[in-house]
Amino acid sequence: MADNDVEKKLRDLISAMRNSDEYRRYQRLEAELSVRPDLKQAVNHYRNRVFEMQNSNRDIFDETDYVIHDFDQLTKDPLAAEYLDAENSVCGMIRKVVEAISAEVIVTLPDGQNQA
Prior knowledge:
Radius of gyration: 19 Å
CATH class: Mainly Alpha
Order of helices and strands: HHHHHHEE
Helix content: over 70%
Strand order of the largest sheet: 1-2
Number of domains: 1
Oligomer: single chain
CATH architecture: Up-down Bundle
């Protein structure tokens, strides 16, 4: 496949993802959240905390308990909960694409390990 063919298919994939129901839902909820700055700030704080938790060397169970306790009220807000669910769906879609490419486009490293 020529590079320009790959690039065209990539643009098609991006277009399909941007036009998906999941992404459109995410965009709609992002706009709704933007008119509630206090809630948006709280959601972003939660997102940052979850990211830090997932990328730390600390005990994940203790960290999860902390996050659940600290952000209990936030996750009960319908807009916040729906936004976080929509974001998770879009991230899952992106993860699925990356995993599919990584599984099929194999690059062998000098030590014999496969690397995408």
